């Protein structure tokens, strides 16, 4: 049977499938993966890294000879998307790190994706070339021009097959529209526009126009000294092209309707959970900052990630989330140390599975967590080389909080905070997940009987 | 380019901070005001470190500034209930927390140390090393510190105004408002431009100084009073500041195209601004 929609947690056993990246002990900073994204069919999987490169993997066709090896992902295309830049006016280096990649839905034979660093968004076209024209009249096979006087007869060039070549070409460059660092891009469901969001502003672009953008949200105060809140993430509604949400560093989400006014400074809906006084600490505000916001595929819910929890909100209920999941609550008693070493500012992402029944997010020690919304069961898994035998089933991990530590458990103080899983992706229709652990990309699939 | 002595102090400082924060986390007996003071110090130290960076992280700066404001507000409310003087305090004796003290001195102008030392007797008498290391900072100093950091962020970041707002038909009546706002931006950008060029020169000279082997030359002279400017960058620079500041010194004539157009945009903005100001003022 093919694992597909709506599998309950207890039925799903996750197995190691592949790992991409080197095993070197010393990690080159440029190789650190900074974003992961499946395309709309799941056929392609793109990663961006700190060095400004994009690597696209393509799923191979399933073969009847090896039914247990369900389509592996192999490198399809690699290209340098962004280069480091130096802004001489401000004496600032502009990092080439790819912050986000978003795919456009496929409309012809070519694939299109948006990739962005802190300042510039680029539209890339990835296309295949498997034929080339041969038999030109005016030049020979090496491209050298022929002497026209030597040509005695004319022929029509024909297309002959060649080795498959995958080319990536930048089709549009959307630059100079963001003063602050871009944290999100989101393609609109009309497939004609997209938005880019930085700390204080959100701009709306038309794919065809690169020298203009509409500013649709601007939260910069007239006096910067009054600044208390920044935009942390933004996303378009999956079906309603006029609706989008953006999250803030104060733990709030605003839903905006672009039909009401050109500048969406007044929200249509405002989602905020009242603070729990029993959990109040000096770090309450910092840990409430939302690091990621994602619409469900259905468009009925939004999921937000803050430092310790993942929350699911119903669009029709603004005063509190309908579900809250603890990702690593054992860190609540370590907040001061985590503040001191800046881990408290780590931005974890979160993802839905194809049927919106399971949500996933990362943690430390290369752990990642899945929560089944229906059964309320959760599991902690680890992305590590030790569990990397082909089709090896991942064993659930457990962190022990205090008292006696069981044999397989790991204590909070032994967690490796340098191994953080910030970026994960879930195949749009199957139980295949991609987990980025520093410079390695792990692909896990559920076990096929 | 830093002396070995300074580096030792820094790693001590980092270790001590890690020790303090894990003491915060693990100890339930730590009194609340002490915990609060510890967090406040960490916040202020971070903000100061960010100030030294070429491009501070806006998100983090805002979060930390909010935390400071929150603590400040709490302390203010407490002091409204009881007449307590919040004062400036420096331990005269040197021990492993020198790093914290030096940065404290550079950040907040010490005003009348000797007077205030006599007011500090409550805490001075406490032997607890944690308490001895903490700085108690005045309200005004904190507010002005936060304000100056956020203002600096504006000057560093928002030099070029955002590329055009394209007003749709609906927005026509709103357009004059937008122009007004844009002027404000431009005026701030004007100040900002000047500030960038101003700090541009200053940072160049400090980087030049860093390149010299100062500590070799002045090894026997006690420079701890003046070391605050040098102690922060190594804590957490995303990239060496000297690289960022030396490059433009050498290659300023050959800017890349995007920044060249930025300069041109700024210049045309300035002349347009003058023109608009003349019209508005009616001179």
From TrEMBL, chain A:
<protein>
    <recommendedName>
        <fullName>Serine/threonine-protein phosphatase 2A 55 kDa regulatory subunit B</fullName>
    </recommendedName>
</protein>
<dbReference type="GO" id="GO:0000159">
    <property type="term" value="C:protein phosphatase type 2A complex"/>
</dbReference>
<dbReference type="InterPro" id="IPR000009">
    <property type="entry name" value="PP2A_PR55"/>
</dbReference>
<comment type="similarity">
    <text>Belongs to the phosphatase 2A regulatory subunit B family.</text>
</comment>
<dbReference type="InterPro" id="IPR018067">
    <property type="entry name" value="PP2A_PR55_CS"/>
</dbReference>
<keyword id="KW-0853">WD repeat</keyword>
<dbReference type="InterPro" id="IPR036322">
    <property type="entry name" value="WD40_repeat_dom_sf"/>
</dbReference>
<dbReference type="InterPro" id="IPR015943">
    <property type="entry name" value="WD40/YVTN_repeat-like_dom_sf"/>
</dbReference>
<dbReference type="GO" id="GO:0019888">
    <property type="term" value="F:protein phosphatase regulator activity"/>
</dbReference>
<keyword id="KW-0677">Repeat</keyword>
<dbReference type="InterPro" id="IPR001680">
    <property type="entry name" value="WD40_rpt"/>
</dbReference>
From TrEMBL, chain B:
<feature type="domain" description="SERTA">
    <location>
        <begin position="32"/>
        <end position="79"/>
    </location>
</feature>
<dbReference type="GO" id="GO:0005634">
    <property type="term" value="C:nucleus"/>
</dbReference>
<dbReference type="InterPro" id="IPR052262">
    <property type="entry name" value="E2F-SERTA_domain_protein"/>
</dbReference>
<dbReference type="Pfam" id="PF06031">
    <property type="entry name" value="SERTA"/>
</dbReference>
<dbReference type="InterPro" id="IPR009263">
    <property type="entry name" value="SERTA_dom"/>
</dbReference>
<protein>
    <submittedName>
        <fullName>SRTD2 protein</fullName>
    </submittedName>
</protein>
